[in-house]
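Work Package 3 committed the consortium to producing structural models of liganded targets before the mid-term review. Because experimental data for this complex are still outstanding, the team generated a predictive model from sequence and the ligand definition alone, so that downstream docking and mutagenesis planning could proceed in parallel. The input record is reproduced below exactly as it was submitted to the modelling pipeline, together with the SMILES string for L-homoserine.
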Amino acid sequence: MASQSFVIRSPCSSANIGPGFDVIGLALSMFLELHVTVDPPASSTENYPLNCKITYEGEGEDEISLDPEVNLITRVALYVLRCHDQRAFPKNTHVHVKNPIPLGRGLGSSGTAVVAGVMLGKEVGGLHHLTMERLFDFILMIERHPDNVGASLFGGFVGTYLKPLTPEDTARVEIPLSEVLPAPQGGVDTGDRPPEPPVGIGHHIKFPWAGEIKAVAIIPEFEVPTAKARQVLPAEYPRNDVTFNLQRIALLPVALGQSPPDPELIYLAMQDKLHQPYRQTLIPGLTEIVESMTTATQPGLLGVCLSGAGPTILALATSNFEEIASRIIKKFEENKITCSWKVLEPAEGTTVVRTK
Ligand SMILES: Nc1ncnc2c1ncn2[C@@H]1O[C@H](COP(=O)(O)OP(=O)(O)OP(=O)(O)O)[C@@H](O)[C@H]1O
Ligand SMILES: N[C@@H](CCO)C(=O)O
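The resulting structure, written out as tokens with the ligand in place, is given here.
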């Protein structure tokens, strides 16, 4: 194989946007980058496990493993490679990760890592036949709710859905994650072929987004692991609460596509009764923050919601971003929580730029 170098760039995402639990995703302008070189003739990295050297800078640099069998991005790439009978990375693969996305904050860091990992497997494996739609199948074998990953892969403001599968394919999708991404084997290759995804698991549709609308992300300093934020949700819901969300989800994509935006309609369309009320046990002040920020009292504001599984709060707005962020930061301060904040915009999906 000839030497090659390329950059994979994948946006972070905010899922749900209020009522769209496990359905709606928004790709946002903060990007995980993988700077990859594959240089077969050199010998410097030949002794790295699985032929892959990882270096890392940015969010999580003190905690993310640089072992390619452990690191989420390279484990996912290996899954794609092993489904195509390639047991390791090409000789002398170097992946330099630049990650500005805070971990466990509701900005889809894990989904972005999985999307970038699948793309990494495709590129280093020379698997050019894998379309974006087929990559989505691989991604959904790992991250099983499609909203964050659909946005990170395809970009923009998306609705995502899973197609009914045959009973055999359903069984394959429900294979435990531990079989898709097996536990590290200490560098020993068991030779097992991982389960391949069925074809056509997940789909997406792009919604319009009014250009004036920006996303203000208020990011508390503490993490809420998504798995924990899903455990607090009930198994069953009152019918009225489901109807409440269905009414709002029918409005949301239309309301956010209209220019000029209608603040009252958007505010209403961003309300939720299926996940936010239950997650306030993990995020001090959540209900008060969501209820205290209204379009009547805050010029420029369109609506407020929990970003993904939290704890980040997403405020959609057309102006006065700093003032909106300050008000929410003050509310968190009442609970002794400090925050950072950013103004983000809808972003394009995952790209690969070849430099050699
Ligand atoms: N760049 C990365 N490299 C390797 N592992 C990562 C990376 N980003 C995230 N992860 C893994 O994902 C975990 C965070 O995932 P989690 O689903 O809890 O939060 P999130 O994806 O940030 O939030 P949400 O799904 O609510 O938007 C991290 O603790 C880490 O194990
Ligand atoms: N829809 C998911 C997004 C977080 O990954 C949730 O709210 O749990």
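Reviewers should note the following from the model. The chain has two domains: 4-204+346-354, 211-344. These observations will guide the Year 2 experiments.
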